[in-house]
Hints:
Layout: H1 4-20, E1 28-38, E2 48-52, E3 67-75, E4 84-94, E5 101-110, E6 119-127, E7 132-141, E8 148-158, E9 165-175
Antiparallel strand pairs: 1-3, 1-9, 2-3, 3-4, 4-5, 5-6, 6-7, 7-8, 8-9
Bound molecules: 2-acetamido-2-deoxy-beta-D-glucopyranose (5 copies).
One 2-acetamido-2-deoxy-beta-D-glucopyranose (NAG) binds near residues 111, 112, 116 and 117.
Amino acid sequence: MVSTTALSVLAALLLLAAAGAPASAAEKETRLRVYWHDVVSGGPNATAVQVAEAPSSNASATGFGSVVVIDNSLTDGPNLTSRLLGRAQGVYVSAGKDNLSLFVAMNFVFIDGEYNGSSIAIIGPNRADPAVREMPVVGGTGVFRFARGYCQLRTHWFDAKTGDATVEYKIHLRHD
Ligand SMILES: *[C@@H]1O[C@H](CO)[C@@H](O)[C@H](O)[C@H]1NC(C)=O
Ligand SMILES: *[C@@H]1O[C@H](CO)[C@@H](O)[C@H](O)[C@H]1NC(C)=O
Ligand SMILES: *[C@@H]1O[C@H](CO)[C@@H](O)[C@H](O)[C@H]1NC(C)=O
Ligand SMILES: *[C@@H]1O[C@H](CO)[C@@H](O)[C@H](O)[C@H]1NC(C)=O
Ligand SMILES: *[C@@H]1O[C@H](CO)[C@@H](O)[C@H](O)[C@H]1NC(C)=O
């Protein structure tokens, strides 16, 4: 038998725990859309540079093992000349041996607009074939503290000759 005293102590502890818990009612929801410009061509103008590849990458159709470091522009419209909202800084790695699939780890660092000074962290898989890909948002800073959510990616434009691409990111976040 659990005594009445034990139950009331438990109830008091639960109340204390509830008081200390984060106010989930105050949680905000934000949806945003940016365009991510992967510029691998243009020599010194490139914002995506391959820094490593597997010794046997010539034998892999997917470039398995290649590592690309990016400082890509994030704009509010699909054109590279659209308003610059921030930069996508991080890496992507060709992580699929038989199918083209990237491991992506990057921060979206906002430098203009209503999110200036804030950032979100995205880590996830990015397969080449589906028209819509999804990656998780695992955290954030500034107005995006405690952020979690996901982004949906659609290729807006791709130049097969240069490898340059523009990808639309629709981002859905919950945060403090
Ligand atoms: C780099 O960008 C500048 C300024 O937009 C342009 O004039 C130049 O032609 C570009 N260089 C290359 C190699 O594309
Ligand atoms: C890959 O490159 C290495 C070294 O350059 C070469 O010995 C090998 O034959 C190449 N393999 C293929 C499949 O092209
Ligand atoms: C971006 O805008 C410039 C100038 O307005 C235009 O010449 C170019 O074709 C546009 N690029 C794309 C990919 O829409
Ligand atoms: C890789 O692609 C092939 C052919 O498109 C497909 O049959 C296979 O299921 C894919 N494998 C994975 C792990 O997605
Ligand atoms: C963005 O924030 C930085 C640092 O707070 C500030 O210096 C800069 O002027 C801001 N940019 C815009 C366009 O508001």
